[in-house]
Write a structure and sequence with these properties.
Blueprint: E1 2-15, E2 18-31, E3 35-39, H1 46-53, E4 61-66, E5 69-70, H2 76-86, E6 87-91, H3 102-113, H4 118-131, H5 147-159, E7 165-169, H6 177-194, E8 197-202, H7 205-208, E9 213-218, E10 221-222
Parallel strand pairs: 3-8, 3-9, 6-7, 7-8
Antiparallel strand pairs: 1-2, 1-4, 4-5, 9-10
Length: about 220
């Protein structure tokens, strides 16, 4: 069953009097528990596609349906609530809070979004730290961790609210080749464990090989 449906979607940006078509008439569906990547050269529309599915932007035309909801019809508050409870995000620059430990960074979404008891939060966080191989690093701050370790913490943080879908825009861009492949494989393991759908973008051929479904974008068109 499709978790994501994109129907006749176009996204046009206005720069002065010039219109730039970031996406043109995109149609696709993504099933639950999929491991999907969008690939293509810089400026092909990968980030725009992820932003539309991730409720960070709206299409100019067409529909974006996620988990049975037409998210492009949501207002700003509805989009924020939907992101908090249904979606998780992983960023290429990690976006960890420098003053929080690895444990506290993972805990942060639970404190902000879900009203869980301290004991339940601890159980959830420790389970995820174990899953991403970071239990022994839980009390370290981001500047004490390697790039690969930071991204492992970021994966755990994205999963802690048990989202249906995790979005990752170039999640390996700031990692060396070995760490990049390891992080993508970790994401796939987490998909297998939690049945979470992962959608990410990349231009790295080594990372592309780890995906199960590849959608290629060129000049805003699906090819």
């Amino acid at each position: 069953m499709a978790l994501v449906q994109v129907e006749n979607v176009s996204k046009i940006y206005q720069t002065g009097e010039i219109e730039v078509a970031a996406l043109s008439n995109i149609n696709l569906s993504i099933d639950k528990a999929s491991f999907v990547t969008f690939v293509g050269p810089s400026g092909s529309g990968k980030t725009t596609m992820l932003n539309l599915i991730g409720c960070l932007d709206k299409p100019t035309r067409g529909k974006v349906i996620v988990n049975g909801k037409q998210v492009n019809a949501f207002n700003r508050k509805q989009r924020a609530g939907f992101r908090g409870f249904v979606l998780g995000f992983i960023f290429q620059s990690f976006n960890l809070f420098p003053v929080l430990t690895a444990y506290e960074n993972i805990e942060f979404p639970l404190v902000m979004i879900k009203n869980e008891s301290a004991s339940k939060r601890k159980d959830m966080i420790m389970s995820l730290l174990d899953s991403v191989g970071m239990q022994d690093q839980k009390d370290k701050f981001p500047d004490q961790l390697s790039g690969g370790q930071k991204q492992r913490v970021a994966v755990a943080r994205a999963l802690v609210t048990r989202p249906k879908l995790v979005m990752a825009d170039e999640p390996t861009a700031n990692l060396d080749k070995k760490s990049a492949v390891n992080v993508i494989r970790l994401m796939r393991e987490m998909r297998d464990k939690y049945d979470t759908t992962f959608i990410f973008s990349t231009h790295d051929p080594g990372v592309m090989e780890e995906a199960e479904v590849v959608h290629t974008l060129v000049d805003g068109k699906l090819v």
